[in-house]
Predict the structure.
Amino acid sequence: MTWTFQVTAKDERKLYSRLFLVLEQQSVAIQRFHAEAGEGQVRVTFAISSEEDKAYRIESLLYRLQDVRSIFICSVP
Protein backbone atom coordinates (compact mmCIF):
# COMPACT_ATOMS: atom_id res chain seq x y z
CA MET A 1 0.00 0.00 0.00
CA THR A 2 1.20 3.52 -0.73
CA TRP A 3 1.18 6.06 2.09
CA THR A 4 1.51 9.80 1.62
CA PHE A 5 2.83 11.95 4.46
CA GLN A 6 2.71 15.72 4.74
CA VAL A 7 5.01 17.00 7.46
CA THR A 8 5.10 20.63 8.60
CA ALA A 9 8.10 21.64 10.68
CA LYS A 10 10.15 24.59 11.77
CA ASP A 11 12.86 25.33 9.18
CA GLU A 12 15.94 24.04 10.98
CA ARG A 13 19.27 22.63 9.89
CA LYS A 14 19.43 18.87 9.43
CA LEU A 15 15.65 18.48 9.26
CA TYR A 16 15.85 16.62 5.96
CA SER A 17 18.62 14.37 7.27
CA ARG A 18 16.50 13.43 10.26
CA LEU A 19 13.50 12.65 8.04
CA PHE A 20 15.58 10.47 5.74
CA LEU A 21 17.15 8.70 8.71
CA VAL A 22 13.72 7.66 10.02
CA LEU A 23 12.77 6.29 6.60
CA GLU A 24 16.10 4.51 6.20
CA GLN A 25 15.86 2.90 9.63
CA GLN A 26 12.41 1.55 8.75
CA SER A 27 13.69 0.18 5.42
CA VAL A 28 11.05 1.75 3.21
CA ALA A 29 11.43 2.86 -0.38
CA ILE A 30 10.64 6.51 -1.04
CA GLN A 31 8.47 6.82 -4.13
CA ARG A 32 8.12 10.60 -4.12
CA PHE A 33 9.67 13.45 -2.10
CA HIS A 34 8.92 17.18 -2.30
CA ALA A 35 9.83 20.01 0.07
CA GLU A 36 8.89 23.69 0.19
CA ALA A 37 10.47 26.17 2.58
CA GLY A 38 9.31 29.64 3.48
CA GLU A 39 8.57 31.98 6.37
CA GLY A 40 10.48 29.90 8.90
CA GLN A 41 8.72 26.64 8.19
CA VAL A 42 9.05 23.69 5.85
CA ARG A 43 6.34 21.52 4.31
CA VAL A 44 7.62 18.12 3.21
CA THR A 45 5.44 15.70 1.25
CA PHE A 46 6.61 12.18 0.55
CA ALA A 47 5.12 8.85 -0.45
CA ILE A 48 6.31 5.41 0.62
CA SER A 49 5.23 1.85 0.05
CA SER A 50 4.70 -0.12 3.26
CA GLU A 51 2.28 -2.04 5.42
CA GLU A 52 -0.17 -0.14 7.63
CA ASP A 53 1.59 -0.86 10.94
CA LYS A 54 4.92 0.38 9.60
CA ALA A 55 3.33 3.57 8.24
CA TYR A 56 1.90 4.41 11.65
CA ARG A 57 5.23 3.54 13.26
CA ILE A 58 6.92 6.04 10.94
CA GLU A 59 4.34 8.67 11.85
CA SER A 60 5.11 8.10 15.53
CA LEU A 61 8.85 8.38 14.93
CA LEU A 62 8.42 11.59 12.93
CA TYR A 63 6.48 13.20 15.79
CA ARG A 64 9.50 12.58 18.01
CA LEU A 65 11.71 14.71 15.79
CA GLN A 66 12.58 18.13 17.08
CA ASP A 67 10.63 21.00 15.48
CA VAL A 68 7.93 18.85 13.78
CA ARG A 69 4.64 20.70 14.15
CA SER A 70 2.12 18.51 12.35
CA ILE A 71 1.80 15.38 10.24
CA PHE A 72 -0.98 14.41 7.87
CA ILE A 73 -1.00 10.81 6.62
CA CYS A 74 -3.26 9.09 4.09
CA SER A 75 -3.23 5.80 2.21
CA VAL A 76 -3.83 4.88 -1.41
CA PRO A 77 -4.55 1.21 -2.05
Notes: The CA atoms of residues 6 and 14 lie 18 Å apart. The chain has one domain: 2-76. Helices lie at 15-25, 52-63. The longest strand covers residues 29-38.
